[in-house]
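Quick look at the format.
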Amino acid sequence: MKLYIAPFLLYAVTVMAADLTGKWSGSFRAEGADHSISQLIILKQQGGTLSGSAGPDTSEQYPIENGTVDGNKATFAVTTGEWKFAYALTLKENSLSGDLTLESTTERRKAKVTLTRTNQN
């Protein structure tokens, strides 16, 4: 019986450790750009689902779409008036970093994004 409990406890600790709920701030720089753009992302995780909002600051936020969490990997999208932002991020300690694809009707750009947790809730 003890052999069956240990893997379950390890799984439960891993799932709890990967909770992304909270505020995350940082920036991204699109390939070829001469400056970084601020990011403030507010996440709410329920199991493998992410919701919340993202934008450059608290006054400009857009709802998160199709948010998922799988282990330490998070993916979600945000649509503004003319751009769609698709995030593919990896959690490492209190940092989320990875790739961002920006698409409009006429352009597609790639960027690297780095975020740090500003609080838990």
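Next, a different chain entirely:
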Amino acid sequence: MNTWKEKTAGKFTIRVVHNKGKYFGIVIKGNDKLKQIEGDDPEELWMQLHTEVLKSGPNFIGYAGAINRFLNFFPDGMSSGLFTGRERKYKEDAAIKLCEQAPLDKALTGSGFSEAIISAFRATNLLSPFEKPRVEAALKSPQADAFIQGAAKFAMGDLKAGLTQMEKALAPHTVAKWTAITYLPFLWRPKDHIFLKPVVTKNFADRVGHSFSELYHPKLNTETYVSLLDMARTTQSETAELNPTDFIDIQSFIWVVGEYDENEDAGLD
């Protein structure tokens, strides 16, 4: 029996082993084997083990609990005027304006879109007040076209090349972060891409038991983003009863479940 991968996660040890042509995933606490699962794909088993550990955490509520929490703030769901007014419309308006002023196909190879992109970043409060000035500085610099074109590549599906190009363009301005990287692809193609605000998104992952919580890394990499997309698609499926339109609604759902304070009124993110 050979160990493929092993990791300590709090009080638990998770391990994937290979034995006689098969893979086994094991969750161990102390000297006790709590769970063993079998599968053909070790990466998939590794993700399942993370999920099993998260389910034992104090913040876990599952998707049923997440939906109940969401409905506590928006009892009429995602189609209500309350939800649209507080969580969706300003993001949707920013997406529409971006596509009009800096169309994705033209931004992919074109130049001169800096002012339109700056306007798109100003249109929401998804980035922090500390991040916005740095992004604007990048968009007024010689690296502007490289950043915009990299974001367009990323949005079109070339994740690795787009990520590398954006990181290189934003690094001199100390804002090569997930928030700045995922913002434009999210607005250009909200059915395919999602915005990543790390802390609240990890909180959400803890609550629904998705392995993104354990697999996330602040260093920009495609594996973290692919895990995020998997969680977004899973969330879209699990919340079908709420009729989410796209990942704008899913990002809002993540924000509400992961961040809203039950003692306060629902608010903008």
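The two ends are 49 Å apart (CA to CA).

See the schema section for token definitions.
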